[in-house]
């Protein structure tokens, strides 16, 4: 079957149709039904962009009844920037007389923006100076939002890579390669959607009509998607093109649809090609009157490349999480090593120096004057202060009490040390969990999140009370840190670039999620902040 094409009828065609009026009327009615009930919007416009003809789905997309749209400029429904794009689209269409497409923004009476995709062709009718063109419109708002989410995700991923560039340059090169591959996959996906996402008279996407479960019509693109010749598809059971595992669902949807019950008008399923390969397709449909009976008209697009890209993106994210977890583990090991070397090396050396100075003073006091020993005696408190500073650094890097006595004793020690520094902040702690049920790796995570949460309170909240809770509940461990400080707008802070919002919140969330926890933060200006973390054990 040849692709549909708009052209002037020849005299022979008219004569033949006049001799066979009944088939001509049937054909005209079929095309009229296909036009009126097509699952996409059809419009005919003149050079000035005035709507000359529109089907029901076109009116639905423009949220106006069909009669009110006639002789109305399509630009009235577009955003200012899209009006300019539409003018360029129309001019280029008449200049090239080729199929042209573009994406535009619709604005309704509530100032709500929706995206549509146009694919247009000039109506020649054998005239060297055509003055009309036909276009197909389809809403692509979800696609645009998906693209924006993907771009935002890639931007955040790139920022995280940049933050760790110094220490992880070799790893970052691999991540940049993965990001580039994701962008290429996204570009290929957009190209695939542009090629298979709309319908004009010459059928640029798969179009089909099914009646009583049998394929009555299929265009070239539909046949190409499933790897058949069109002649092979006519009369075939439509379920033969569906993966066996999805056939019960399609059969149930078809029965409900024909009974007038609500079913999704667009859905994704697995399909089977002629050679046995499995593919992913998206289908959109509408119920029409065809051959004096109820039938289903729909369009289909191949989503196999997009599915593969999504799988690749998920795998990339999984690898990134594994890498981040390994980095955190390496950081803790390095902290522990440095703390041990400071304690065993510098700490012991300073203690030995202090002991030697004290011993020497004891001997010199017997033979020297007190005034001669004053400079040497000043070394003792200086040595002691240096020893205490080394101990503080060791505790900040990795408190030995965490490895020796466990997380519960560490929390008690940390709260006590915190109050020594920030005397204006009270701490109310409720610990109701058995040390034995907390896995060893999780103890470090709990301590680091607690440490960061308390530091944030001290630096930013202006609070005078912290309530800490760590308890066992329903086979899970719950930790909550709540303050009565100034609070902040969570959404605004999260939406900031990482370089502006700092690493505190991101570090806590990352540690929690990498350990398999649910992380939640709530805050409101003037009402303090609450951080909740839940681990299943």
Can you walk me through this structure?
The chain is elongated and about 130 Å long. The chain folds into five domains: 11-139, Beta-Lactamase; 144-196; 206-302, 2-Layer Sandwich (Beta-Lactamase), CATH 3.30.450; 320-398; 402-537, 2-Layer Sandwich (Heat Shock Protein 90), CATH 3.30.565. The model is unreliable at 1-19 and 196-201 (pLDDT under 50). The strands form three sheets. A five-stranded antiparallel β-sheet has the order 2-1-5-4-3, with helices on both faces. Helices cover 52% and strands 21% of the residues. It is built from 19 helices and 15 strands. It has 537 residues and is α+β, with helices and mostly antiparallel strands. Strand 1 and strand 2 (51-54) form a beta hairpin.
């Amino acid at each position: 079957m040849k692709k549909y094409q708009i052209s002037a009828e020849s005299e022979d065609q008219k004569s033949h149709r006049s001799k066979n009026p009944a088939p001509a009327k049937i054909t005209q009615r079929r095309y009229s039904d296909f036009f009126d009930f097509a699952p996409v919007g059809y419009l005919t416009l003149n050079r000035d962009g005035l709507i000359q003809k529109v089907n029901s789905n076109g009116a639905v997309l423009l949220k106006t009844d069909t009669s009110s749209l006639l002789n109305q400029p399509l630009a009235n429904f577009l955003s200012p920037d899209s009006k300019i794009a539409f003018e360029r689209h129309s001019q280029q269409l008449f200049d090239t007389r080729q199929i042209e497409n573009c994406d535009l923004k619709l604005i309704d009476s509530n100032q709500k923006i929706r995206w549509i995709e146009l694919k247009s062709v000039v109506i020649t009718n054998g005239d060297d100076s055509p003055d009309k063109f036909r276009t197909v419109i389809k809403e692509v708002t979800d696609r645009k939002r998906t693209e924006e989410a993907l771009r935002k995700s890639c931007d955040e991923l790139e920022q995280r890579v940049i933050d760790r560039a110094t220490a992880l340059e070799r790893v970052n090169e691999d991540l940049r390669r993965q990001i580039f591959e994701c962008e290429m996959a996204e570009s290929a996906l957009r190209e695939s959607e542009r090629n298979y996402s709309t319908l004009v008279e010459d059928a640029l996407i798969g179009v089909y009509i099914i009646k009583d479960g049998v394929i009555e019509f299929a265009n070239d693109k539909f046949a190409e998607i499933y790897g058949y010749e069109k002649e092979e598809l006519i009369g075939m059971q439509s379920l033969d093109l569906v993966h066996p595992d999805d056939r019960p669902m399609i059969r149930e949807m078809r029965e409900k649809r024909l009974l007038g019950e609500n079913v999704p008008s667009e859905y994704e399923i697995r399909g089977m090609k002629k050679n046995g390969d499995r593919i992913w397709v998206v289908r959109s449909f509408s119920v029409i009157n065809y051959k004096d009976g109820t039938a289903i008209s729909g369009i289909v697009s191949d989503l196999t490349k997009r599915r593969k890209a999504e799988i690749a993106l998920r795998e990339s994210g999984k690898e990134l999480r594994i890498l981040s977890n390994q980095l955190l583990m390496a950081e803790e090991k390095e902290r522990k090593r440095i703390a041990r070397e400071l304690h065993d090396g510098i700490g012991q050396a300073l203690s030995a120096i202090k002991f030697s100075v004290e011993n020497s003073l004891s001997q010199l006091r017997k033979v020297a004057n007190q005034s001669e020993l004053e400079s040497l005696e000043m070394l003792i408190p200086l040595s002691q202060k240096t020893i205490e500073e080394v101990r503080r650094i060791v505790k900040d890097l990795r408190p030995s009490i965490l490895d020796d006595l466990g997380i519960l004793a560490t929390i008690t020690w940390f709260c006590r040390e915190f109050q020594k520094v920030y005397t204006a902040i009270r701490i109310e702690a409720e610990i109701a969990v058995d040390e034995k049920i907390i896995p060893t790796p999780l103890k470090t995570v709990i301590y680091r999140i607690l440490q960061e949460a308390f530091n944030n309170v001290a630096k930013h909240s202006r609070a005078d009370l912290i309530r800490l809770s760590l308890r066992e509940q329903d086979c899970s461990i719950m930790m909550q840190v709540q303050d009565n400080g100034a609070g902040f707008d969570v959404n605004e802070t999260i939406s900031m670039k990482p370089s502006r919002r700092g690493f505190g919140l991101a570090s806590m969330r990352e540690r929690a999620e990498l350990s398999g926890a649910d992380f939640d933060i709530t805050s409101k200006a003037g009402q303090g902040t609450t951080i909740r973390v839940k681990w299943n054990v």
